[in-house]
């Protein structure tokens, strides 16, 4: 295939799109502005750098929609999942990775591919010709965001993503903390002890909530609005919604027993998840925050076990720009007004590493087929990837469109199954069985062999 595919952005979606297209025989140029032009959140120039959590969430492909998405991407030869598996860390039933090892491995595979080249350059406009995939993610540069707004005639929507802090493991007081996964979940001892837990009694919890509410927060710039994605709420925003909110969210005291005081039931528990292969870094689970740096250190050191905590990274907040995809994109992820341009990843209105990579996988395959002069069959809406695609390209209400994680609520229902909580195990298994059969058939029908 002589025509070159240009991909703007080397994050999860751009990396996966490049891999899929190159494996299908297409020559690809990845345009990545880092490290020449940095962002506040990125630390390196590696492709597929993880800037927030190091977790790909549940890996259960029978009872969880994101686990099913993992399965579908593995079946499609996904680079992101292959490298995630190769750099896996203990995390109970979740798939967590060594973020540095993962990004380095993805980068190495892409730059060594004979059909892929990487150009360090910032693209600031939408091109008039050629084949392009824009996968610039939540940190799309201001110039490019303005070009997209101009081209589409609409304002890009925005909300704010908050980043959780990372703690040095050797600064945690293990006379108060302990290792345990919730409900001892995991097949190995390493999996069953994948999290660090810090307990709070009622008085400690109430003081912590008071401090959260009183702490100085990051101010928003003029013209910005604080429209948060519910799956990534700052902890202080959750606390503002009610003093008990955190106890029913990231600080829920269930499925865990304090070995230092096994007869005492904690009022709340803070969990930390391993963040690198060495086990020297742990991120505080669910503790995304927009508190100012000085306030963060003071508030987080109120947590029992973290009184002397040293932070490898404090939390932060950033704007996330995304398209009103149901209005602007067609079912092939093409910009309706400029069909030579596709979008992929978080900018399309999916949320999460895996969902972003999945849309990159699909965009890369669709672009490769187009370059080859053939059309792929429609992606079945009963698959995880198909459900996401359907949602962002027409299934969602355009007027209220917000970023979405994959979930079974996006899937067409399976007829004849019991509803409600009692029937959900059978229902979820039916969803995943149906999806696996449909995805396997689609991959067989949509095969593109490398030239």
TrEMBL record:
Domain of life according to the entry = Bacteria
Q: Where in the cell is it found?
A: Cytoplasm
Function of this protein?
Catalyzes the folate-dependent formation of 5-methyl-uridine at position 54 (M-5-U54) in all tRNAs.
Q: Which HAMAP family match?
A: TrmFO (MF_01037)
Which PANTHER family does the entry mention? GLUCOSE INHIBITED DIVISION PROTEIN A, METHYLENETETRAHYDROFOLATE--TRNA-(URACIL-5-)-METHYLTRANSFERASE TRMFO
Q: Does the keyword 4Fe-4S apply?
A: no
Question: What is the required cofactor set for this protein?
Answer: FAD
Q: What is its EC number?
A: 2.1.1.74
Q: Which family does it belong to?
A: Belongs to the MnmG family. TrmFO subfamily.
Species of the source: Rhodovulum iodosum
Question: Binding positions for FAD?
Answer: 9-14
Kind of enzyme, top EC level? transferase
- What InterPro entries does this protein map onto? FAD/NAD-bd_sf (IPR036188), MnmG-rel (IPR002218), MnmG_N (IPR040131), TrmFO (IPR004417)
Q: Which UniProt keywords apply?
A: Cytoplasm, FAD, Flavoprotein, Methyltransferase, NAD, NADP, Transferase, tRNA processing
- What this protein is called in its record is Methylenetetrahydrofolate--tRNA-(uracil-5-)-methyltransferase TrmFO
Q: Which reaction does it catalyse?
A: uridine(54) in tRNA + (6R)-5,10-methylene-5,6,7,8-tetrahydrofolate + NADH + H(+) = 5-methyluridine(54) in tRNA + (6S)-5,6,7,8-tetrahydrofolate + NAD(+); uridine(54) in tRNA + (6R)-5,10-methylene-5,6,7,8-tetrahydrofolate + NADPH + H(+) = 5-methyluridine(54) in tRNA + (6S)-5,6,7,8-tetrahydrofolate + NADP(+)
Please give the chief subcellular localization of this protein. Answer: cytoplasm
Give any Pfam family that matches: GIDA
Domain MnmG N-terminal as annotated: residue spans: 5-373
């Amino acid at each position: 295939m002589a025509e070159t595919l240009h991909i703007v952005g080397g994050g999860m979606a751009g990396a996966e799109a490049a891999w899929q297209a190159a494996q299908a025989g297409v020559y690809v140029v990845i345009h990545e502005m880092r490290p020449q032009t940095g962002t506040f959140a990125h630390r390196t120039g590696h492709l597929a750098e993880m800037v927030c959590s190091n977790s790909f969430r549940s890996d259960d492909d029978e009872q969880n929609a994101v686990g099913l998405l993992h399965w579908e991407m593995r079946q499609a030869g996904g680079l992101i999942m292959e490298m995630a598996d190769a750099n896996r860390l203990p995390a109970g039933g979740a798939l967590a990775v060594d973020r540095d090892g993962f990004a380095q491995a993805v980068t190495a595979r892409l730059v060594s591919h004979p059909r892929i080249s990487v150009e360090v350059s910032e693209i600031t406009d939408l091109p008039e010709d050629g084949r392009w995939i824009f996968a610039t993610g939540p940190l799309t540069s201001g110039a490019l965001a303005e070009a997209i707004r101009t081209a589409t005639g609409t304002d890009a929507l925005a909300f704010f993503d908050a980043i959780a802090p990372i703690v040095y493991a050797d600064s945690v007081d293990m006379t108060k903390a302990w290792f345990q996964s919730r409900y001892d979940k995991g097949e190995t001892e390493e999996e069953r002890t994948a999290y660090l837990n810090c307990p709070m009694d009622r008085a400690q919890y109430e003081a912590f909530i008071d401090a959260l509410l009183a702490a100085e927060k990051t101010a928003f710039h003029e013209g910005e609005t604080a429209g948060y994605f519910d799956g990534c709420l700052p902890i202080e925003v959750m606390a503002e919604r009610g003093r008990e909110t955190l106890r029913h969210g990231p600080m829920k005291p269930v499925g865990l027993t304090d070995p230092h005081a096994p007869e005492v039931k904690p009022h709340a528990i803070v969990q930390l998840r391993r963040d690198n292969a060495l086990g020297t870094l742990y991120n505080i689970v669910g503790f995304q925050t927009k508190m100012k740096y000085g306030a963060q250190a003071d508030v987080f050191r109120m947590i029992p076990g973290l009184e002397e905590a040293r932070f490898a990274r404090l939390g932060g907040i950033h704007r996330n720009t995304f398209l009103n995809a149901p209005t602007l994109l067609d079912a092939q992820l093409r910009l309706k007004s400029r069909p030579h341009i596709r979008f992929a990843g978080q900018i399309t209105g999916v949320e999460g590493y895996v969902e972003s990579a999945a849309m990159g996988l699909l965009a890369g395959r669709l672009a490769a087929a187009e370059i080859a002069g053939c059309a792929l069959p429609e992606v079945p809406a009963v698959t995880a990837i198909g459900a996401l695609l359907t949602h962002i390209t027409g299934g969602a209400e355009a007027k209220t469109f917000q970023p979405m994680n994959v979930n079974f609520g996006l899937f067409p229902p399976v007829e004849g199954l019991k509803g409600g909580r009692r029937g959900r195990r059978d229902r979820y298994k039916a969803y995943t069985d149906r999806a696996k059969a449909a995805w396997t058939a689609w991959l067989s029908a949509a095969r593109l062999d490398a030239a």
